[in-house]
Design goal:
5-stranded parallel sheet, 14 helices, 13 strands, globular, alpha/beta, 2 domains, Glycerate kinase, domain 2
């Protein structure tokens, strides 16, 4: 039997690679004659560059940038020297995994470091930049990114503002970078890879939907939503951008960076899952396997809404499928294995996920040896 294990990461617990290896070890401990192939996937957040590096001829460009709280950290992006394409993962510089839970505050976090990565790619000679925006710690609408690229934001007193969520409502004016840099920006094709379809503002917007997981209270959510609305109005007025950007699918991705990349980079939104699965030639790949095992940390209603796992299931719909997750909060049409049902509590599930995944692998392996497909 040929088995393909192709999970996404288990957020706050394990990378996709570690998930796949734990399951493989469990399966082969009871079913050693089966062939198991591990294919760690990513949805645009942490781990996306690892996935790309495994399949494309790219070099890793390392540099020091600012993290979400403006502290210096080491980060990298990937560059295809032949095609002049840069692949940038915002989680490298502005990701929520870079901060302890007590430090997560979308009033203070910034996409400035992501802007530094983009600027370096521009200076390296990129003609096309693909920005993966999953796993952000920010809600600044790309203001920080824009500051790193030379955009200037002024308040009512004509004083410059630092690019972070708290300053969004204070913006009174925005101006473009110096002409030479702006010319380079306009010559580059920018793409934002995301599977978030939320608009920028309102109940379905960046602040309301994703703010709480970044540390926002109800009061902060209202403040940031108003701030993003102000950012939009200022950009429409001063930069002459399309007034419909705020309503576009994906504008609310990464705390509004989906909109910000359109304001400041004239970026186009693309599906991160479609992009990566196409690079893997996934629809053809699955034909060689008898069983597909996939999953993510939490399976819920959002899982089916164009996210990576739903795309995997669509491509593998004619195959036997198993779902594995930390916790499942929705009905699924496939056999589903949850870590939380084996762990004593959530903390145990997160801390010892690899151990429980190996046990789940054993369980699946035993089912297969007993002829249960």
């Amino acid at each position: 039997m040929n088995i393909l294990i192709c999970p996404d990461k288990f957020k706050d617990s394990l990378k996709a690679f570690d998930v796949a290896i734990a399951l493989k070890q469990g399966i082969q401990s009871v079913f050693p004659t089966t062939h198991v192939h591990c294919l760690p996937l990513a949805d645009g957040g942490e781990g996306t560059l690892d996935a790309i590096e495994s399949i494309l001829p790219v070099q890793k460009i390392r540099l020091t940038v600012r993290n979400p709280l403006f502290k210096s950290i080491k980060a990298h992006y990937l560059f295809d020297e032949q095609k002049h394409i840069a692949y940038i993962e915002m989680a490298q510089a502005s990701g929520i995994e870079l901060l302890q839970s007590e430090d997560r505050n979308p009033m203070e976090t910034s996409t400035y470091g992501t802007g530094e990565l983009i600027l370096h790619a521009i200076q390296t000679g990129a003609k096309k930049i693909i920005l993966f925006v999953g796993g952000s710690a920010t809600n600044d609408g790309g203001m920080g990114m824009a500051c790193a690229l030379g955009y200037e934001f002024l308040d009512m007193d004509k004083l410059p503002l630092e690019g972070k969520g708290a300053n969004l409502p204070l913006i009174n004016q925005v101006s473009e970078p110096q002409l030479s840099l702006m010319k380079k920006i306009k010559e580059i094709a920018f793409f934002v890879a995301t599977d978030v379809s939320n608009p920028l503002l309102g109940q379905s917007g960046a602040s309301a939907v994703f703010g709480p997981q970044k540390g926002a209270t109800l009061e902060i959510i209202r403040y940031l939503d108003n701030g993003l609305n102000n950012l939009d109005e200022i950009c429409v007025r001063d930069l002459k951008v399309d007034p419909e950007i705020k309503n576009s699918a994906g504008a609310g991705a990464a705390g509004g960076l989906g909109a910000g990349a359109q304001y400041f980079l004239n970026a186009k939104i693309i599906s991160g899952a479609d992009f990566l699965l196409e690079k893997y030639n996934f629809k053809e790949l699955v034909k060689d396997f008898d069983l597909i095992i996939t999953g993510e940390g939490k399976i819920d209603e959002q899982t089916w809404d164009g996210k990576l796992i739903s795309k995997v299931l669509e491509a593998a719909k004619r195959k036997n499928i198993r779902l594995v997750c930390g916790i499942c909060e929705t009905e699924t049409p496939y056999p589903t294995y949850e870590i939380i049902k084996k762990a004593s509590d959530k903390e145990d599930a997160l801390k010892n996920a690899a151990i429980y995944l190996e046990k789940i692998g054993e369980e699946i392996g035993l089912e297969l040896t007993n002829g249960k497909n």
